[in-house]
Amino acid sequence: MSTVAEIESAIEKLPAGEVHRLLDRLLAKSSNGVTKPKTGAELAKLWPVRFHLPPSEAEALAADLTDARAKQPVVRPSAWE
Description:
About 65% of the residues lie in helices and about 0% in strands.
């Protein structure tokens, strides 16, 4: 796997025409919805088929999430809301 520095270095070595072609391709992907963030419902559908944790890791993750939620401050609406 390449680091960001390696990727940036490789891009800097490309001819100008190739850089423009790469930028056009990246911009086309971001404008056609390919990089659209997933909603919670979409992620919930993907989770069972794409992400697999061993039981011990799943339990550790669940415990970590529960602990983080308990530490969250209570958000009260401001007087302006």
